[in-house]
Structure formats: C-alpha cells, structure tokens
Amino acid sequence: MEELFGNWVTGVNFYKLTSIYNLQPYLPYYTKTICLNLIYQSHLLDSYYTAKQ
Fold first, then answer.
1. Calpha distance 45→9 (Å, rounded)
2. What DSSP state is assigned to residue 25?
3. How far is CA 36 from the centre of its chain?
4. CA distance 7 to 22
5. How many whole angstroms separate alpha carbon 2 and alpha carbon 10?
6. How far is CA 41 from CA 5, 6, 21, 31, 46, in A?
7. How far apart are the first and last CA of the chain?
8. 10 Å Cβ neighbour count for 15?
9. With contact defined as beta carbons under 8 Å apart, do 33 and 7 qualify?
10. From CA 46, how far away is CA 53, in angstroms rounded?
C-alpha cells in the first residue's frame, strides 16, 4: 500500500510542479502505472484473504 500511495503522491507533486500542457505526454504513463498498481495490490489482498480462510 505504501508503494501505491508513494506513486500517487509522486504523481500529484509532478502534476503541481508542471502545467497541464507540459504534463499531457506523461498522463497516460501515470494513469497506466497507477491502474496496474491498483490491480496488483487488489490481487495481493485477494491472495492474502483467500490464504487466511
């Protein structure tokens, strides 16, 4: 979870530091990374809870 939050904070700081125009090329990359992290985190959580039951 810390990794995901770190990526989110990095994305937000990056967004604040640059204008919308400068950020546009990077948006797809950030979106994809965050989505992949979310999928990965939820997969880990699913595995964890399945193992506990």
1. 22
2. G
3. 7
4. 19
5. 12
6. 11, 13, 31, 15, 9
7. 22
8. 14
9. yes
10. 11
Q: Specify the residue for token string 């904070």.
A: 9
Average pLDDT by stretches of 10, the chain with 53 residues: 62 64 67 78 78 73
Q: What are the CA-CA distances from residue 48 to residues 9, 26, 43 (Å)?
A: 26, 33, 9
23 close to 14: Cβ distance less than 8 angstroms: yes
Q: What is the dihedral of CA 4, 10, 13, 19, to 10 degrees?
A: -110
Q: What is the DSSP letter of 18?
A: S
Entry field: residues in the chain:
53
CA distance 43 to 51: 12
Q: Which helix (H) or strand (E) holds 19?
A: none
